[in-house]
Write a structure and sequence with these properties.
Length: 382
């Protein structure tokens, strides 16, 4: 009897050990048992499809992002290295060799652009394609082609390209004057060359000037993340309408800090129309030296006006001189629009039609004068 129990105990021990090994390393060898349930009717696939696609959930920007992203392109630029000015000097060749025998790689740059017409007009920033010997455009669908530079406008940092492809996705150009602070926006571009990226935010401010970025400034400020490579990309509203071209950021690190700037479509339309039709942007000029009317300037020049732009100098024989403007005058309105600083004055005067007279409201001492100035075409700036 004792031998029987000993054999039984050993058999149980071996079985438990074997079961433990199988359940640990090969559980698939064991039979599986499931609790039976009442049969249920098959669920049609169409009824579960919305969980994977279909309508966007509340608060999603899926629809405007997909619609606008198709018209945003990536831009690659190639710049041939400049020849050293002393490359032919004997001493230069003695120490550095013959530059023509040394292979120098082309310099490359990355940026973004927006297709705004079916005939291949692409808008981007001037600084994206500045100095480029070759410009390549890549669409979201993977198509890639060379781009021709139609024209550039360094004073607004805009450039117009043209590509020859069919079935181009085109963005709808919206009205930037209709947006307000707090409106939701999306920024679309190719930051750091990682590929097309969409970020969201709000309009933080409008009419930003005196940033020292461009000659003519009227920026939309947004907290949507904009990084290097986003330049030339699209700033769109929640209906996928283009309201600005992303152009600059304020940053201490080189990356986004929540302060980005875009050129509004009100400026973009004017520049594109001029570059496409005439190859240049026609702007007006009156020939004065303007100065912001700061408290120090008002006190030093004994000026009674509270706001406006001080005329520090007048070009002899220029449009302002012929109209009767004098040094010491304060320009307060141009064509019915108030001007509070030099940037606003330059932008307002530039928008006037050359050769067509416009009313200027000027304060001279205690008097308020209404003068008529016929602006001349603005000299082309380098």
């Amino acid at each position: 009897m004792r031998r029987f129990w000993l054999t039984f105990a050993q058999a149980v021990t071996v079985f438990v050990a074997a079961y433990f090994v199988v359940t640990t390393f090969r559980p698939d060898l064991l039979p599986r048992y499931t609790r039976s349930a009442a049969p249920t009717a098959a669920v049609p696939l169409a009824s579960v499809a919305p969980a994977f696609g279909g309508a966007a959930p509340p608060g999603s920007f899926r629809t405007p992002a997909q619609k606008a992203s198709a018209a945003v392109v990536s831009i690659s630029t190639f710049r041939k290295p400049q020849r050293h000015p002393y490359a032919d000097h004997p001493l230069f060749r003695f120490y550095y060799g013959d530059p023509s025998q040394q292979q120098q790689p082309e310099q490359t740059g990355l940026g973004s652009g927006v297709v705004i017409s079916p005939d291949g007009v692409v808008v981007t920033n001037f600084h994206v394609i500045e100095g480029a010997s070759d410009v390549q455009v890549e669409l979201q669908d993977g198509r890639r082609t060379a781009a021709k530079v139609v024209g550039t406008d360094p004073e607004t940092d805009l450039a117009v390209l043209r590509i020859a492809l069919d079935r181009l996705p085109v963005i709808t150009v919206g009205d930037s004057d209709a947006i307000k602070v707090g409106d939701q926006v999306l920024a679309i571009g190719n930051p750091f060359g990682v590929g097309q990226t969409v970020t969201s935010g709000i309009v933080s401010a409008l009419g930003r000037t005196q940033l020292g970025i461009n000659t003519f400034e009227n920026f939309i400020q947004t907290d949507a993340a904009i990084n290097p490579g986003n330049s030339g990309g699209a700033l769109v509203d929640v209906d996928a309408n283009l309201i600005g071209i992303n152009t600059a950021i304020y940053s201490r690190s080189g990356g986004s800090m929540g302060i980005g700037f875009a050129i509004p479509t009100s400026t973009v339309k004017q520049v594109v129309e001029g570059l496409v039709k005439e190859g240049r942007v026609a702007r007006s000029w009156i020939g004065i030296q303007p100065v912001d009317l700061s408290p120090e300037v008002r006190s030093g020049a004994r000026i009674e006006a509270d706001e406006g732009v001080l005329v520090a100098g007048v070009l002899k024989g220029g449009p302002a001189d012929r109209a009767g403007l004098r040094p010491g005058d304060v320009v307060q309105q141009v064509a019915g629009k108030k001007v509070r600083n030099v940037s606003e004055l330059l932008t307002t005067v530039a928008a006037l039609k050359p050769g067509t007279s416009a009313p200027f409201q000027v304060q001279r001492g205690p008097e308020t004068l209404n003068l008529t100035v016929a602006p001349a075409p603005r000299p082309e700036q380098r």
